[in-house]
Amino acid sequence: MRLEIRAISRIKAGPERTLVNDYIARANSVGRPIGFGSVEEREIDNRALSGKAAETAALVDALPPGCLVIALDERGQGFTSRQFASQLERARDDGVRDGVFLIGGADGMDRQTLPAGVKLMSFGAMVWPHKLVRVMVAEQIFRAFSLLAGTPYHRD
């Protein structure tokens, strides 16, 4: 199962870029031996997009058929790290080939533009900067893979 983090805007340089790159590299290292494909990131340039409906449409453009779609939203469902790992494991075991995480811009996402069956996931009731959300998604993917692989990264 391949995973992709799709996000509006770019992270050029700085601590957030370093962390995203590090967690994606770690996830790729731990995930492959347990049946996960690559974890990748796609940044969507929003300079030519006007409003959250256009940004959301760009995020969902060309989603792989039958993929698991998880949109990050403060009104979404909260998960423990173990529950999140179980969701990815279940999708992988059910033969889902792709999973895509959507991170909107400053105004969030247009719910009407999101595809049917999208899961809304939250990192809590607070609103987080999208750069930090990207770091958090990358870290939680790595943590999920680490849990599933039985490594000591996650401590209860």
TrEMBL record:
UniProt-listed InterPro entries: Alpha/beta_knot_MTases, RlmH-like, tRNA_m1G_MTases_N
CDD domains on file: RlmH-like
EC number, UniProt record: 2.1.1.177
Pfam family, one: SPOUT_MTase
GO cellular component: cytoplasm
Keyword Methyltransferase carried by entry: yes
Catalytic activity: pseudouridine(1915) in 23S rRNA + S-adenosyl-L-methionine = N(3)-methylpseudouridine(1915) in 23S rRNA + S-adenosyl-L-homocysteine + H(+)
Keyword rRNA processing: yes
Residue positions binding S-adenosyl-L-methionine: L72, G104, F123, G124, A125, M126, V127, W128
GO molecular function: rRNA (pseudouridine-N3-)-methyltransferase activity
Compartment(s): Cytoplasm
Keywords, in A-Z order: Cytoplasm, Methyltransferase, rRNA processing, S-adenosyl-L-methionine, Transferase
PANTHER family to which the protein is assigned, alphabetical: METHYLTRANSFERASE, RIBOSOMAL RNA LARGE SUBUNIT METHYLTRANSFERASE H
Primary role: Specifically methylates the pseudouridine at position 1915 (m3Psi1915) in 23S rRNA.
Family as reported in the entry's similarity comment: Belongs to the RNA methyltransferase RlmH family.
Assembly information from the UniProt record: Homodimer.
The protein, known as: Ribosomal RNA large subunit methyltransferase H
Species per Swiss-Prot/TrEMBL record: Marinicauda pacifica
Taxonomic classification: Bacteria, Pseudomonadati, Pseudomonadota, Alphaproteobacteria, Maricaulales
Gene: rlmH
